[in-house]
Design goal:
55% helix; rod-shaped; four-stranded antiparallel beta sheet; alpha+beta; 123 residues; SPOR domain-containing protein
Length: 123
């Protein structure tokens, strides 16, 4: 075989190889797109409501109620709850839909309640 034939054969093999790779990558992209669509549909059907709360205190009952009263005096626009999860009492603020919203309020609250943290809660 002369050089021209070898080059032609090499070009044909290379073209075949590249077309197979291209077909494979298109197939993979379609699969990924399909999986993303399935995940979106699953999330719409199976919503487990996740809310975010700001916890001000975790400890004894008397202190939990004291923190609640102090908080409500400073920030009357936010709702507070007292929860008991054995063996401790918790003072929590709000029920925020997004972590970003909870973090924004946390930044405001931290000025007076430095130990406050954001918690994720399933409803």
């Amino acid at each position: 075989m002369n050089i021209l034939s070898k080059r032609l054969l090499f070009t044909c093999v290379l073209a075949l190889f590249l077309s197979v790779i291209n077909m494979y990558s298109q197939s993979e992209n379609e699969k990924i797109t399909q999986l993303i669509e399935q995940k979106k549909a699953f999330n719409k059907e199976n919503k487990s409501s996740i809310v975010y709360k700001i916890q001000l205190y975790n400890g004894i009952e008397a202190e939990a109620y004291k923190i609640k009263r102090n908080f409500e005096a400073i920030y009357p626009e936010y709702s507070t709850n007292i929860l008991y999860k054995a063996p401790e009492w918790k003072t929590q603020v709000g029920s925020f839909n997004t972590r970003l919203e909870a973090d924004r309020i946390l930044n405001i609250i931290k000025e007076n309640f430095s130990g406050a943290i954001v918690l994720e809660d399933k409803v």
